[in-house]
Amino acid sequence: MMMMPATEIVFSSRPRLHMLADGGMLVYRGSGELHSDMTLIYRRLTRFIKPASAKQYVRHALHFEDYLMSIGLCWNSPPQPLRQAGRQYLAAHGARLTERSDHWRAEPDPDQVGPPNLRLVIESLRAVYTAARHLGLYEYEDEPFRLTITSAESGDGLPAPLPPSWSGLTLPRPKLSNPDRYFVFKGGYWTPKFLMDAADLYEQVRAAFAEAPLRDQVIVRCLFEGGPRISEICSLTFRGWDYSVGEKRPAFGPSFKLPSKGKHGSAIKPVHVGSETGSLLRRYFMTERRLQDPLTEAYEAWARALGIEDYTPEHYRLFLSASGRPSARVPVFLTRGGRDYTANAHRKGAWRPRMATAGLQVRPHQARHWFVSMYLQAVELLFERDAPQYRKNREALGLYMGWAYPEDMLAVYDRTLDEHRTYERVMDITTQLQELLTQNIFPLLQPPTVPPPKSGEMTRRLLALQKEGSS
């Protein structure tokens, strides 16, 4: 076992990422010099991950490069010195490093309360150097961070290796059990939170967003009513909104398609919300968003030429088609400056401040758990005596949520729901007991005393002998 000394890292200036009109990006070093290699790496990364993730990866790589330059190395130095510098760099980020036979294990140091971004730093370095090798920008065959793993991926977290081919065994890797709790990093510790939330959670969160912009109100409604992830709903595009489900749910209404997790940004996941939320989304598009859309001026010129006075999603679709703009690249939710409104922007600028003001400790992902819990309880209530419909509606939920293992996830929620109900029963009994104690009727709860046995012939003889002995 070997511990690496911590090294303080100071950045003299911050690298810049300059977005281009065509969606590309130019990467600059902290000195202001164009970083052509990292610009090419960013473009390759966006072929496989979202641009927002690629930006984060590149930023971490640039910070690492600044550190390398401070110790006389460059980002494309040989693997061995890069690994040594990387270990010192990770130690400075609050990592505790342990040497293994073929890798270094990195885990958060419990004695330090640092930012919980250790995994992101490692993933960034891995992705950037892998992309650099594919582009021919890193000439060494050995990737410098291929054998550095985090504690969450090591030990028990890795599945057991498959049996060798000559063994005759073809057993698949056992699936890890899904926990019925998730963990939140707070105050330097990971604390468990249960999946179940109060039935009125949606009303509490909506009340907290009552005075928020329409954009954030719509996002909150969609989270609770449709069950998407926060990253998915914030990625809604105009093309994804142009989705109809029969006559009752026309396009630009309460149904839309979102990018699904692990599908590289393709809008293939249907999400359905209430009609009131669909109307609110249209109102946001025609009022608040219109003032933020950088294409509004071009749309109004096009509309005047055709004598169109209304600003509706249907007319906007015609405008995009006439101007040759792909609707899949037009975001529905915008910032005040007309940029994409990301999940991170919603968390920092809307969710966290309003939850703190309302005194609620709620994360956006809890809306997804709430949606599933309410759906399952409704299915149980409506189809308790209809086994085929009960089963079909539960299976439909698994398909709708896009779970890889629907049966496992449903079992997790079933178990959590049972535990929640058991907890409620125990608390109900405990509350009633406390009420009885406050009413001074505790003696009624005492077990009855057993009366002494009646004296028989043998007992009378023993008492007589005791009297004779005492005399």
From TrEMBL:
Q: Which InterPro entries match?
A: DNA_brk_join_enz, Integrase-like_cat_sf
The question of whether tRNA processing is a record keyword is answered with no
Q: Does the keyword Cell inner membrane apply?
A: no
A molecular function (GO) held by this record is: DNA binding
Listed under GO biological process in this entry are: DNA integration; DNA recombination
- The membrane-spanning stretches of this chain are none
Instruction: Recite the UniProt keywords alphabetically.
Output: DNA recombination
- Name under which the protein is recorded: Integrase
Q: What is the taxonomic lineage of the source species?
A: Bacteria, Thermotogati, Deinococcota, Deinococci, Deinococcales
